[in-house]
Specification:
The protein has about 375 residues and is an alpha/beta fold. It has helices spanning about 25-40, 55-65, 80-85, 100-110, 110-130, 145-160, 175-185, 205-215, 235-245, 255-265, 290-295, 325-330, 340-355, 360-375, and strands at about 5-10, 45, 70-75, 90-100, 130-140, 160-165, 190-195, 215-220, 285, 315. The strands form two sheets. The chain has an eight-stranded parallel barrel, surrounded by seven helices.
């Protein structure tokens, strides 16, 4: 599989921690950074230096711990933020500023002309401080596109290496994302990073659309953590790019489930059982037609091999199971069933599923069989 120039910049330790109610300890941040690096994530956004000395000490500890990923910090286009970032041993800085008229007017009380001056000034100041500079275009999805192009051109002329297109409120669909990123791609010779939020459930789709339009970098968070509905999940972006667009990000997908579990514990946010890629039940099958199809040929009901995630298919018995699945389950327990017994047990299993809303466990399956045997005696 070819490796395309798409770089994952994971922001679990910055935007992910901005999830309401989430606060990582220093030890948890170090463990997450180590796990992200071990999985081959090439860039990590690790914090906000202006938050204070404790935040900067944690950033320094991460810098001392991980060697492979490039590290980025986040800052506003303000002198105080840049001064705080100078103390951090990182290569990249994201200098963020609103670019939509609504945020310029109602958040900052400023206009477009002022914004362009700030971009030029702070990109140059960031370069003077020794950073490679990414300009974070906050609320880019609601910005006037012609003005956004001027922001990008000003950033490029000042020496920035990258523009982060932030769909801050998650209001785009893939079609609008593609159009905007394609316009940027045609207008400037800058790396373009897509920062997608999931308010409409479209963060992963918008991320893929941005890549197709020419984005070179994408922001992700493990399990889709982030403000409000969260960001594009790392695990979804990696697997979707691989299987939809044929792009290998270089990230070891076999580590994604373990990474997901680590972040779920640290964040106090359990992963839903049906969560794509890393949910407990996503490779679990009950329906008789699916179980039969898998047994005949895995590709019948397999979009990709779960072994890519160090996982495997499993089957459970429930309301939608068939007789062959019942026979296979009991055979695994050392019990060979005839057709009549399988039909009787299937009826009990279906009634159990309706009553308890779960699959029967091994002890219950054996109890059903003993009861059936006694009834037949």
């Amino acid at each position: 599989m070819p490796t395309a120039p798409v770089i994952v910049n994971d922001t679990t330790l910055r935007d992910g921690e901005q999830t309401a109610g989430v606060a990582f300890s220093v030890a948890e941040k170090l463990a997450i950074a180590r796990a992200l690096g071990a999985a081959g994530v090439p860039e990590l956004e690790v914090g906000i230096p202006v938050m204070g000395g404790a935040e900067r000490e944690t950033i320094e500890a991460i810098a001392a711990l991980v060697s492979r990923p490039r590290l980025m910090v986040w800052a506003r286009m303000q002198a105080l933020d840049l001064a705080a970032a100078r103390a951090c041993r990182v290569e990249l800085i994201n200098l963020s500023m609103p670019v939509s008229d609504i945020q310029l007017a109602h958040k900052l009380g400023r206009d477009r002309a002022w914004a362009l001056v700030q971009v030029d000034r702070y990109v140059k100041a960031g370069l003077d401080a020794g950073f490679a500079v990414c300009v974070g275009a906050e609320d880019a999805s609601r910005a006037d596109i012609d003005f956004l192009l001027r922001v990008a051109q000003t950033a490029a002329a000042a020496g920035a290496c990258r523009l982060r297109f932030a769909d801050t409120l998650g209001v785009l669909d893939p079609f609008g994302t593609y159009e905007r990123i394609a316009r940027l791609r045609a207008a400037v010779d800058l790396d373009i990073e897509m920062h997608a939020h999931d308010d409409l459930g479209l963060a992963t789709a918008n991320t893929l659309a941005a890549v197709r339009a020419g984005a070179t970098h994408i922001n992700t968070t493990v399990n889709g953590l982030g403000e409000r509905a969260g960001n594009a999940p790392l695990e979804e972006a990696v697997m979707a790019l691989r299987h939809v667009q044929g792009i290998d990000t270089g990230i070891d997908s076999r580590r994604l489930s373990q990474l997901s579990a680590l972040v779920a514990t640290a964040s106090g946010r359990p992963v839903p059982a049906g969560k794509s890629i890393v949910g407990e039940w996503v490779f679990t099958h009950e329906a008789g037609i699916h179980v039969d199809g898998l047994a005949k040929h895995a590709a019948n009901y397999q979009g990709f091999d779960p072994a890519e995630l160090a996982r495997s298919h499993r089957t459970v018995l429930g309301k939608h199971s068939g007789g062959s699945a019942v026979c296979a389950a009991y055979a695994a327990l050392g019990v060979n069933l005839d057709t009549r017994a399988a039909g009787c047990l299937l009826a009990r299993i279906r009634a159990h599923a309706v009553a308890t809303k779960r699959a029967p466990d091994t002890a219950e399956l054996l109890r059903f069989y003993r009861e059936l045997t006694l009834e037949a005696a």
